Amino acid sequence: MKRPIIILFLLLAFGLKAQSVSFLQFEDEELYEAPNTPKTNYSSRTAFIKNLEGLNNRALVKFMAKKGVTEKLIKQANEFYDKMWYAEAARVFDIVLEKSEAQHSINLLSRAGDSHYYSGNMERAYKWYHELYETFKSEISEDRFFKYTHVLKGTGRYRRAAKLTKLYRQKRDGTGLGEEGRVNAERDVPQLVEIKNVAINSKYSDFSPMFHNESEVVFASSLDSSFLTTRKYRWNNQPFLDLYVAKADEDGVDLSGAKKFSNKINTKYHEASVAFSPDQTIIYFTRNNYGKKLKRGKNGINHLKIYRSELVDGEWTKAVELPFNSENHSNGHPSVSPDGKKLYFVSDRPGGFGGTDVYVVDILENGGYSDPLNLGRTVNTSKKEMFPYITKDALYFSSDRTMGLGGLDIYKSDVVEGVFSVGINLGEPINSNRDDFSYIIDEGGEKGYFASNRKGGKGDDDIYSFKNILNLNAISGIIEDEADGTIIPDAEVFLFDKDEVRVAQTRTQPDGSFVFKNLRPVSRYTVKTVKKGYFDSTSEIRTKNNERVSFTQPMKRLEEIIAEDEGVLKLEVETIYFDFDKFNIKPRSAQELDKLVAVMTEYPKMVIKIESHTDAIGTRAYNKYLSDKRAKSTRDYLVANGIEAERIQSANGYGEEQLLNNCRDGTRCSRDKHRQNRRSEFIIVEM
């Protein structure tokens, strides 16, 4: 996010060092004061940096070669970084890394990547994170690796992100699937959605929309409307955040006429993320810990708090903070339940599951609040959950957990009698490869707003409206027996998207039919059917433009590959071929051996023996050796895939003793003729 919100809302756990500030912090020279840290002359030093950037390449390289210059610039960049002035730090780190002879150390590359990451320049962040990973692969921290994979997705490098994440999980826990993978592997089957960048967006950050009255939306913006003074926020050199209100059009798809919300609510520091009581007479919002002056916790950080104000005679009263706030951690992102009895919010308080978690309190009749309750692991993960929005039957929130499409993704958790289901990713087009967050939807579940810093916007973070439209995209089919065409009821059918992520599953009806609805238009899907007694069947299907696609999927019985040949029972699969002079299992052969695994699993008393053969090229002794290696390689594959070793009576090679054609020594044969003799056969000894 680019990015008052990253500080405000990424709950990043920033403390005195740059990587330990809480998600909710709006850090600035005034908001953060590390003990014994001398003041920095910001204007003179940034002017110096601008002068450097104005030099041509030759002059800059010459200047950087002067003694002590590089060291001074690194010191200056680190000072900017420690104060969280990331836009300035990024500029200096770039000059040092690109124009000097400074060693590209793990610390220098890490901070350069972080500076661009937090100020929203994904391509530049990729440049330094990629070099960091390639150079210090074994030393890179989990936090930096996590940011690197986010940057990969944020710049469209999905395949590499998926590959590295899988490798990392396998190294970490040996399973290839960690916590976030287990609970978030599915994505919500999407509606067709019309999305519009609304008119009130500026070149700054505009986000956190919230319905107000019947036709207004209140939102946060760093658009500075003051005439004489512009107070800057050093994280990204933008003005501080204030609350604005805009008018929604009749269709609820655009916003116009933005103006400051209330001088009673807005201050000279940050205000953002609001929620209203059902009768619109109480507002909850996020603000810096600010009374007559800024207040700091024991670590020198100015945390965020949730404040409350009432509408009396058309004016908002002086805001008061909620009693569960703290000087030493942050609370923010309030959302009030439709009945007005519960308040949901985000906090980095101790005892949570990750960087920031979603909590809830009861709003009591006497005006008090119950103790905060963590929503648990179905909603919260070891990463950051934020921007909750509660409806009568669902909780929407954003998270940067793995398995997402980009940075922050929007998730939906269904709620029944206070129990929350596992959050499901809303998928495209609501989510993108960038940050998508602060999602709200109307009571009818048809339209709403969210914020995103996706490409094509007007500014850093923009507000988008969305409207669900009727989605007729569907895949339907009939599952039938390949041999006689009879239908197969109660088969399990899975649907996977182009990224091999499972998006839905169902069972065939008594008539063998199934249907998957609300799919993406003109998209590639894979349908996989599983039924006991049959081989798994897989078909690749592409949807059309808002219409149903139908097909028939045949399934082959497992027993059909059991055949009798001159009184001998064999397992007939496509020939297990080997490359010349090789004994490794080829991918195509592995698919055939998987069929053997399926049959032997179905018939647990089956015992086989493996016979392997070669062509006549080479000496008889060598061919005997090679075929024996092939037989044992085949046996090892079956055992590795779950078949007990004692169920394979023998695995022997016969060399060129049993050729299938006349390609003997001294006979001229084509390459294909010789290849026919390189095979393995499977003879059933017991059933």
Automatic annotation (TrEMBL):
It is found in: Cell outer membrane. The keyword Transport does not apply. Residues 565-687 form the OmpA-like domain. The keyword Cell wall biogenesis/degradation does not apply. Its main location: membrane. Gene3D superfamilies: Carboxypeptidase-like, regulatory domain (2.60.40.1120), OmpA-like domain (3.30.1330.60), TolB, C-terminal domain (2.120.10.30). GO terms for cellular component: cell outer membrane. Keywords: Cell outer membrane, Membrane. InterPro entries: 6-blade_b-propeller_TolB-like (IPR011042), Bact_OuterMem_StrucFunc (IPR050330), OMP_bac (IPR006664), OmpA-like (IPR006665), OmpA-like_sf (IPR036737), WD40 (IPR011659). It holds the Pfam family PD40. This is Outer membrane protein OmpA.
